[in-house]
Each structure stands twice: as C-alpha cells, then as structure tokens.
Amino acid sequence: QSMDSTLHYIHNDSDLSTNSSFSPEEERKSKVQDVVPQALLDQYLSMTDPSRAQTVDTEIAKHCAYSLPGVALTLGRQNWHCLKDTYETLASDMQWKVRRTLAFSIHELAVILGDQLTAGDLVPVFNGFLKDLDEVRIGVLKHLHDFLKLLHVDKRREYLYQLQEFLVTDNSRNWRFRAELAEQLILLLDLYSARDIYDYLRPIAFSLCADKVSSVRWISYKLVSEMVKKLYMASTPTFVEDLMNELVEKFCRCHKWSGRQTFVFICQ
To answer: Which residues form a coiled coil (predicted)?
Structure first.
C-alpha cells in the first residue's frame, strides 16, 4: 500500500510537469511492458526526474545511469521504448558524473540494442559525448573500437574526421588521454581500409610519436609498426612504400638524436 501511494504521488507529479505532446495516458502506455512488475519499472523511471534528484538525493541520477544497461538487458530491446526518454534525460544531465557513467557504458548498451536502435538512438548521444568535458570524453575514447565496430561501414567512416579532435584536451598535461587514443588506434586499424589508414590515422600516429611524454611515444611506436604491417598486407603497395619513406625522412634522417632513436624503436 505504501508503494502504491508513493507511485500514485510520483505519477501525478510527473504528469503535471511533463512537456511531452502525449496525454498522460499515452505517456503511461508507452512505458508499459510485461517483463518485470510495472510498479518496479515506474519507480526506477521516476528516480531520474531532475527535479526529484535535486530534492531527494544528488547521487540518485548517477546510480540510475550506472544501472541502466542492466535494466535495458533485463527488459530486452523490444522494450527499449520504455527507457529511451529516461536515457536521453540522463545523457543531458547537468552533472558530468552522470554523463561520464553513461559514456563508459554506451558500447555495452549498443550490443544490447542492436544495429538499428544504436544508429537511431545512441549515435546522437555518442556524438554529444565526443564534444563534452574530458572526464566524459574519456569514457567513449576507452571503448571507441567497441562502439565503432557495431556501426555500419559508412557510418563508421564519418568518425575518421573526428579522431584528430582527441589530440586536443582541456588540460594539455592529460597525457593518459593521448596514450588511450594510441591504444584505440591500434585496434581501429582492423576497421578501416588501407587508404583510410594512410589518409586519416597516419597523421595522428606521427603526431603521437613526437609527444612530450615518453609513455605516449612508446605506445605510438607500436601503433606505427602495426600500421606498417597492416598496409604491407593490403593489395595496394603504394601506401606502405610511402609510409616507410616518410619514416626514413622524418625520423631516420632527423638531425635530432631523439628522432633517430624513434626510428630504431619503431623498427624494434
């Protein structure tokens, strides 16, 4: 009885404050499912109301964001319509910790939802996270390969133009960000063609090889060597020849000893 009265209060409150074009009855029907008790789902959805989070508990939205992939898995992709509005509300939450939590799990949610729902509902959120604070961006960066491999080839190619943006951070001392980018680029080599690797990933790799932090440079040496291997296996030999000529010119014949040392490490 206590639960029923609480839910009744929550629904009445949310119905009054909704900006949706649906009537309260249509709004309620859009969130009905038969996997778990409806009252339990309603209680969960009500916790993500921003006004409620401010008055009850500032951490509640973060906990809801953390649990959302589990809720989505339990309900199944056929009931994603029950969670879609809640997910978008959390993704635009004022607290960066809430958005960061979702950024770290968006690749898991993509696996649960499948291609079509990911392209329609998750990609716009993913794009928003790419332009967010570094604390949020690191979440999508750490699982960049896991997310992009689930997209169609054409959609995946669109992100080639944005990879360069990961070199720029709010704090230039945040070298772990660039180290993570190098790690992800190694994995991304399998997702793109030889021309895409040469045109888009190669300039980033060379930039990382000249990083001020040694840890970033070490990972970058592995990235370049893997790039040589990938281009060597490609059907067009021009790319690997051009890449190796560039390595010789830029590093092997460098007037600084550090550049020549870079060449040796890449060969190693």
So the answer is: none
Q: Do residues 135 and 100 touch, judged by C-beta distance below 8 A?
A: yes
Taking the CB of residue 233, how many other CB atoms lie within 10 A of it? 9
- Measured CA to CA, the distance from residue 77 to residue 112 in angstroms comes to 7
The tokens describing 207, both together, are: 């930039």
Decide if 6 contacts 38 (C-beta within 8 A).
no
For residues 153 and 192, give the distance between their C-alpha atoms in angstroms, rounded to a whole number.
Answer: 9
Tokens of 145: 């390969």
pTM: 0.81
Measured CA to CA, the distance from residue 7 to residue 10 in angstroms comes to 5
Largest interatomic CA distance in the chain:
80
Question: According to DSSP H, which parts of the chain are helical?
Answer: 2-17, 24-29, 38-47, 50-56, 60-75, 84-91, 96-113, 115-117, 123-130, 134-142, 144-148, 153-157, 175-188, 194-196, 202-209, 214-233, 238-247, 257-267
- The full set of domain ranges for the chain reads 32-151, 181-267
Q: Which CATH class is domain 32-151?
A: mainly alpha
For the chain, the residue count is 268
CA 157 – CA 189 distance, rounded (Å): 12
pLDDT (tens digit per residue) in 141-181: 999 999 999 999 999 999 998 898 898 888 878 899 999 99
Tokens found for residue 169:
């951070």
Res. 23: pLDDT tops 80: no
Angle at 130 between CA 161 and CA 180, to 5 degrees: 85
Q: Return contacts of 87-91, CB within 8 angstroms, 24+ apart.
A: 87/121, 87/125, 88/125, 89/48, 89/49, 89/50, 90/48, 90/61, 90/64, 90/65, 91/125, 91/128, 91/129
